[in-house]
Automatic annotation (TrEMBL):
Residues 45-424 form the SET domain. InterPro entries: ATXR2-like, SET_dom, SET_dom_sf. Pfam families: SET (PF00856). This is SET domain-containing protein. It comes from Paspalum notatum var. saurae. One of its GO terms (molecular function) is methyltransferase activity. Gene3D superfamilies: SET domain.
Length: 455
C-alpha cells in the first residue's frame, strides 16, 4: 500500500491471491451476465450496458429519450442513512421512504431535539465523517427551539394522539418493526423488513434475538462508526450482503463483481486537501481507523469460509468506492411539503391552520425541511461515465419518494448513444474540474474539455 508500510492485517498476507482475485476487474462474461440479469429483472428497458469502450463499461440508451424523460430509476444495492440524519428523519431502513405520519416525524424530531441527543445515546450531537476527506457532510444542525413546545404536545404527536390540520393529504406508510427486535431499524412494510433482513440485517441486528456476545460486539462496531465515519456502516452492509449470498470463493467473486469499480484501490480518502509531506501520516491514520473498525466488525460477524472478505485490502476497496464515488442518497422530506402546503392555503384557512402549525414550525427551526441523507451504491448509475457536458443527470422528481437514484435526460438522447452524467459541478472552470476528476483517476477529454483546455 504505497508509502505507508506493510498492512497491519494478517489476512492481507494470508489470503493475498484470493484477495487479488476479488479486487481484480471481473471477467467480462461475469460482468455481462450480472448486468444483463439486473436490467432484465428490474425491467430497465430504456438502457443497456456497453463493455470495452474507451472508458471501460458504460450505459447506453436502448431507445430514444426526449429532454426531461426518465432514463432510469436505479435501486440501490447497499446504502445507509447518515447517523446524524436519523435525528431529523425517520425513514424505512431498506427503501428510505419517510414513515409513520407527519405528526410522528415532527414529534420525533422535537423529542430528540429536546433531549439534545445524538443517535448513539451520548449527549452531544456529533458530526459523522469527522476525518478529513470524508464525503459525508454534516447535516442535522437544528436551530429550532423545542422547549417552546410542551412535552405533552410532543408526546401526543409521536404517539398519534394529536392530529395536525390537513395531514390526511400527506399520508405516510405505518411503521413496521425489525423482525430481530432491534429499535435501530424500522420499515415501511413487511416486505422491506424481510428484504433488509435477508440482504444485510440478519447479521447486523442488535435486537433481543441476537446472541449476547455478538450483540455486544456489533454495538461496539456501530458506536465506533458513529463516532468516526459512518461510511463503515455502509461498508459493513456491503460485506454482509456479499456474505449472505456467498458460501464459496466463486460465489463471493460473483457477488463482489457488482461492487467493482475501476480506480478505487487503496485510496482511503481524497488526497487533494493534503500537503504531500503529511500525506503518508494522514493515510496511515485513516488506515488505522479502518483497521480498528474492521477488527470490531470481525469480532461480530467473522466467517472463516469467507475470510478474504475481512481483509483490510477488501475493506479499503469498499470504503474507497463509497468515498470516491460520492454516491449520495437523498429523499425529500414530506414535512417540507406539508408546511409549504399550509403556507399556500388561502389566507383565512392558512391563518386558522397556522395557529396549530406555526409554533411547531418555529420549534423545528430553519432546518424543518431536512431531507433523508445517506450514502448508497447504485449498480447501474455507477456504470455511467462522466462528461462535463452530460446528456443526463440525477434528479429527484416530486413523485420519487424513496431512495432510488433517478436519472433524467437533459437533452434528447438517441438510441445507442452513451448516457453520461457529471460527477462534479460541470460549471467549474477547466482546471478545477480536472483537479476534482483526478480523484476519480482520470483526465476528462470530453468536447467541452477539449475546447477549454489551455494550449
Ligand atoms: C463510476 S465508474 C463508471 C463506470 C466505469 N467505466 C466502469 O467500467 O465500471 C467511474 C470510472 O470510470 C472511468 N471513467 C468514467 N468517465 C470517464 C471519462 N470521462 N474519462 C475517462 N475515464 C472515465 C474512470 O475510471 C472512473 O474512475
Amino acid at each position: 500500500m504505497g508509502g505507508i508500510g506493510t498492512s497491519p492485517c494478517d489476512l492481507d498476507r494470508q489470503f493475498a491471491p484470493q484477495i487479488a482475485q476479488l479486487l481484480a476487474a471481473p471477467p467480462l462474461q461475469s460482468a455481462q451476465e450480472y448486468y444483463d440479469e439486473l436490467i432484465r429483472s428490474k425491467k430497465h428497458d430504456g438502457i443497456k450496458l456497453s463493455y470495452g469502450g474507451k472508458h471501460g463499461k458504460g450505459v447506453c440508451a436502448n431507445k430514444d429519450f426526449a429532454e426531461g424523460d426518465l432514463v432510469l430509476k436505479d435501486q440501490m444495492l447497499v446504502g445507509a442513512q447518515h447517523s446524524l440524519n436519523k435525528i431529523d428523519c425517520v425513514v424505512c431502513s431498506y427503501c428510505f421512504r419517510f414513515i409513520g405520519s407527519i405528526e410522528f416525524q415532527i414529534g420525533h424530531r422535537l423529542y430528540l431535539q429536546s433531549l439534545g441527543a445524538s443517535v448513539d445515546g451520548t449527549n452531544e450531537r456529533h458530526c459523522h465523517g469527522s476525518h478529513a476527506g470524508s464525503s459525508t457532510g454534516c447535516s442535522g444542525a437544528t436551530n429550532g427551539n423545542s422547549s417552546a413546545v410542551p412535552q405533552e404536545v410532543i408526546m401526543s404527536l409521536m404517539d398519534g394522539d394529536m392530529s395536525l390540520p390537513l395531514t390526511d393529504q400527506f399520508c405516510l406508510p405505518s411503521v413496521v418493526a425489525c423482525p430481530g427486535g432491534c429499535e435501530e431499524q424500522v420499515y415501511c412494510s413487511q416486505s422491506c423488513a424481510d428484504s433488509d433482513w435477508d440482504s444485510y440485517h440478519s447479521l447486523l441486528c442488535t435486537g433481543s434475538k441476537t446472541e449476547p456476545s455478538r450483540k455486544a460486539a456489533l454495538q461496539k462496531f456501530i458506536r465506533h462508526a458513529n463516532e468516526t465515519n459512518d461510511i463503515f456502516l455502509v461498508a459493513a452492509k456491503a460485506i454482509t450482503f456479499t456474505l449472505l449470498r456467498s458460501k464459496s470463493m466463486k460465489l463471493m467473486n460473483q457477488t463482489f463483481c457488482s461492487l467493482w469499480k475501476p480506480g478505487n484501490h487503496f485510496q482511503w480518502a481524497s488526497k487533494r486537501d493534503i500537503d504531500s509531506s503529511e500525506e503518508d501520516l494522514f493515510r496511515q491514520q485513516i488506515r488505522d481507523l479502518a483497521f480498528l473498525s474492521l477488527q470490531l466488525l470481525k469480532d461480530a460477524i467473522f466467517d472463516p469460509e469467507c475470510a478474504p472478505l475481512f481483509s483490510l485490502d477488501v475493506y479499503g476497496h469498499i470504503i474507497g468506492m463509497f468515498e470516491l464515488n460520492n454516491l449520495d442518497l437523498v429523499v425529500a422530506s414530506p414535512v417540507e411539503d406539508y408546511f409549504i402546503h399550509i403556507d399556500d392555503l388561502p389566507e383565512s384557512e392558512k391563518e386558522e391552520a397556522e395557529k396549530v402549525t406555526g409554533p411547531l414550525l418555529d420549534a423545528l427551526g430553519e432546518d424543518y425541511s431536512i431531507p433523508c441523507e445517506g450514502t448508497a451504491f447504485f449498480p447501474l448509475q455507477s456504470c455511467m461515465n462522466h462528461s462535463c457536458c452530460p446528456n443526463a443527470k440525477a434528479f429527484k422528481r416530486d413523485e420519487d419518494k424513496d431512495g432510488h437514484a433517478v436519472i433524467i435526460a437533459l437533452k434528447p438522447i438517441s438510441k445507442d448513444e452513451e448516457i453520461t452524467i457529471s460527477y462534479i459541478d460541470e460549471d467549474l472552470p477547466y482546471e478545477e474540474r480536472q483537479e476534482q476528476l483526478a480523484d476519480y483517476g482520470f483526465t476528462c477529454t470530453c468536447l467541452k474539455c477539449q475546447e477549454e483546455r489551455p494550449v
